Structure formats: structure tokens, C-alpha cells
Amino acid sequence: MLLFALAAQLAQPAPQALGASDHHVDVPMTQPAVRPSFADEFDGVRVDRAQWTFDRSRNAAGWYNHERQYYGPDNARVAGGSLVIEARKETLSKARAADWGGQSYTSAKLVSRKAFGYGFYAIRARLPCGRGTWPAVWLLPSSGAWPAAGEIDIMEMVGWDPNVVHATLHSEAYNHAKGTQRGAQVRVSTACTAFHTYQLDWRRDAILVGVDGRGYMRVVNDRPGGTAAWPFNRPYQLILNLAVGGDWGGAKGIDDAVLPQRMSVDYVRYWASATP
């Protein structure tokens, strides 16, 4: 997923080019056995506003990647021990939402108030598979222009290609606008019907992303270019969202008949690294 204004100015690639498959591995990942440094188990009755904020910053102007949703807090709830982010076919009004930009779909985007850095991340989620949906778990810094500030995509999936999850890194030198993004994909046959744990092991000189204890993407800091190649050296905020449409998610249209669709998150856990 992309956030910063520079992204809107960059030439858009073909939809199939937004992912990458050049850094595939198949290695074990071991989740720490100690208590996490941060965790939200979503076992309360509502979203914890002390831990999460709702990003509504582009509702009036429209979201990047030509996405079609309005993001608001009404589309996120805690139920049955999970965070539920729901995308709906729904037209609002200025009276109901002053920042409404004319969208005919609604959803939610949560951003962690805390910024995290090196360490191990585990996000257990069940994904939507309706055509036109675009769920994501990703990381961005709180400041800086895209792509120079960097982006870590732990999980993305587009509903027209169900059960294929993607991990991708973006930086100034390596990003999808240049066709140089680094990443990999893997098939998770029950991504839409069962919970799976999407994991990130972020170290000073390497980033490994996996599912259920198997790493499938590894990128090493071994390219020239300094921060243009590797800006991943400061804390980033964690983002959970479900987009509708867009250059990738909507590449084959939106099936209104399957809405509403939901991304359910059982927990978010993070272990800070003592020795990056």
C-alpha cells in the first residue's frame, strides 16, 4: 500500500507489476517464546483508541492508487475476540461525514500510535476474497516522502487473485513505479476461510517475511545506494486496512454483489529486538 503524496504523481505500472517475485525463499521462522513488547489481542469491546488511530486524511481528496473507499471508524469493530474491518457498498453524505469525498464504498484504516522498529511481528488474520477487495498489513514511517522513506508490506492480497499473498519492499531505488520493487508471493490455500499468522523478522541488514512459521521473502541490505536502497533503519507505524478497488485491487473490477467483505485480525504482537 502507498501513502504519501508523491505516489500520486508517479506513473502507474500495469496492475500485475505491483507485486514482486524476485526474492523468494523457503526458510523457517521462529516466533519468540517470551512475552511480546506490544500486543493487542482485541479481547475488549471496542477498538483501543490509545493504541490505534483511524486514518481519514485523504477521504475528501481521494486515496492513492485510485482506490474507491471512504475510510471511517464505523467500519471497524471488536467482536468475538477479533478486530473486524468491514468494506461495504455504501454512499454517505456530507451531513453524515463532513470529509466524505463522494465515494460509494466505505471501509477502515487503522494506524498504530506507537512506532515500531527492529524485531519480530506477528499478525494473525483471516482475509476477504471478494473481487475488488485489497486487504493489507504494512509499515510506514510517520514522516518523509514516498518512496524515499521506505515501505514494508507484510501482507497484501487482491480479491481477484484469492489466496495469493504478497510481501514487498519499496524504497527510492527499488519501487513499483520504476519496476524495481523487491518481494515475493506465496499461495495460502485457506487465506479467506481460516486465520493465518503473517510474520515479519526485521533486522538491521535483512528483512524476512513469512506465513505460519515459514519465511517466503528475504531481502538483504547488500545493494549500493545508501538510504535510497535501504531506508529501513528507523521506527515505522503498523497499518491495518481493507481497500476497495484501486489500480491493483480493482484491476478486474469490483463485485458489488459480494459486499460486505471483512478482514478479521485475531491479534497483533511485536517483540522488540535486543540485538538487531
- Overall number of strands: 18
Question: What value does the Rg take, in angstroms?
Answer: 17 Å
Q: What is the share of helical residues?
A: under 10%
Q: What is the 3D shape?
A: globular
Largest sheet: 11 strands, mixed
In whole angstroms, how far apart are the ends? 26 Å
Structural class: mainly beta
Amount of beta strand: 35-45%
Number of helices: 1
Q: Spell out the helices and strands N to C.
A: HEEEEEEEEEEEEEEEEEE
Report mean pLDDT, rounded to a whole number. 93
Low-confidence segments, ≥5 residues, pLDDT <50? 2-16
Protein described:
The chain has 276 residues and is mainly β. Helix content is 1%, strand content 41%. A hairpin with a 7-residue loop joins strand 11 and strand 12. The longest helix is centred in the N-terminal third of the chain and has 4 residues. The N terminus is likely disordered.
Task: Briefly characterize the structure.
With about 280 residues, the protein is mostly beta strands. Helices cover about 0% and strands about 40% of the residues. Strands 1, 2, 4, 5, 6, 7, 9, 14, 15, 16 and 18 form an eleven-stranded mixed sheet that branches.
